[in-house]
Amino acid sequence: MTVTARPATASDAPALASVAALTFPLACPPGTSLVDIARFVTTVLSEARFDEHLADPARHVLVLVDDEAGSDDALLGYALLVTGEPADADVAAAVEARPTVELSKFYVVPAAHGQGAARVLMEATLATAEATGASSIWLGVNQLNARAQGFYAKHGFERVGTKRFTVGAETHDDFVLARAL
Q1: Each residue of 19-38: pLDDT tens digit?
Q2: For the chain, which terminus, N or C, has the lower number of CB atoms within 10 Å?
Q3: Burial of 20 (0-12, 13-18, 19+ CB in 10 A)
């Protein structure tokens, strides 16, 4: 599999929403309500929301593309970075290096897991974050998601704090991970 990461374009919004709908449930803790997951996907990860992200100069959306696939199967993952000060007080207290960039979303479809595709997307993500002039990058990851935590640790992220993440009626505990750029 040959993959590349590139900045997303407006024409990527439908595929981004499809990949988000497929991958977001994989990151949710066991027992998360399927109704709450579905509501989150349709409100937070919709095509219209990706259109908004793509039009916002404070957000950077990257897509991971299978160079060998047809256009329908080409999108394998995405990352969403948000520049600016953290809005969450727990994150603002935990992340010391400023300016900082949030890695708000980072997902790769299951078919591409274990093949180096996520590494390609992470390298592009870190390069994009560095290009903003930020000193650090941070993210939230569910405390029960050991696979994601291991991946982020391989890329230099360290636990610096905790925060809460709400999906529907449920609030989950996340670790805040950060790394210098």
Answers
A1: 999 999 988 888 888 898 99
A2: N
A3: buried
